[in-house]
């Protein structure tokens, strides 16, 4: 792992990848570098306009890239189902599923299905997407699922009695819980894949403090221009670049020997995102909490992982 960077990404020719939220930031860099190595990449995004611009930009940066857009709104489970139904017909295989898209510290809101927005988008949408695509992943030798979490998962463990963070709603706690949910999901998914004898690897990564649009989205939604500007300045002068923030995700997705349920992040001293084993809160390795969250997620989304043993 020492010194690993995007130049070390193995040849991806013949492989197919889906990257959620790939129109900007870490998702865009992830998609671009996979395409640069020859992967066929689907940018799964909510906005067709922004995704179309990203496809054009990516094609200009990587002329040989095989990239395309497919609509996916993780805040609407009907959109998740439509994407998962269309993808196998159009592509036939799936080697890499990068569950990257997310929202951060938003004002209290609800998804189309009535879930608290951060829990619904960051966890439940990806839980449903991964489950619906699992038959394709299981049929593809060497497939991987990478969930992008955050160091801020330490802000709180999942409250199984208040999954929608209603008592009371605190935006940063809700965000931390959703990122803990990402790690508990990977923990349980890795266990179930092992029990099924599958070689699919489920792993997690985080970008550290990277310069993306996430930090300013909440203030922008509330019209707090001063706070939005403060976040933008902080991202410019303190944060890692999106290029560096994507390196741990790319490592988890492509490096040889990545272990199931591993958690990779950037070295604290690296401005290039050099990947290292990341610290994680002890509650993200709680077998019982992972199982109960999984069962609750199946009930809430209506998506079950029938190919994997409970």
TrEMBL record:
Pfam family, any one: adh_short
Domain of life according to the entry: Bacteria
Signal peptide start-end: none
InterPro entries linked to this entry: NAD(P)-bd_dom_sf, SDR_fam
Coiled coil: none
A single MF term (Gene Ontology): oxidoreductase activity
Keywords from the named record: Oxidoreductase
TM helices/strands, residue ranges: none
UniProt-listed PANTHER family: PHOSPHATIDYLINOSITOL-GLYCAN BIOSYNTHESIS CLASS F PROTEIN (PTHR43157:SF31), PHOSPHATIDYLINOSITOL-GLYCAN BIOSYNTHESIS CLASS F PROTEIN-RELATED (PTHR43157)
Protein family membership: Belongs to the short-chain dehydrogenases/reductases (SDR) family.
NCBIfam families given in the database record: PRK06197.1 (NF004846)
Entry protein name: SDR family NAD(P)-dependent oxidoreductase
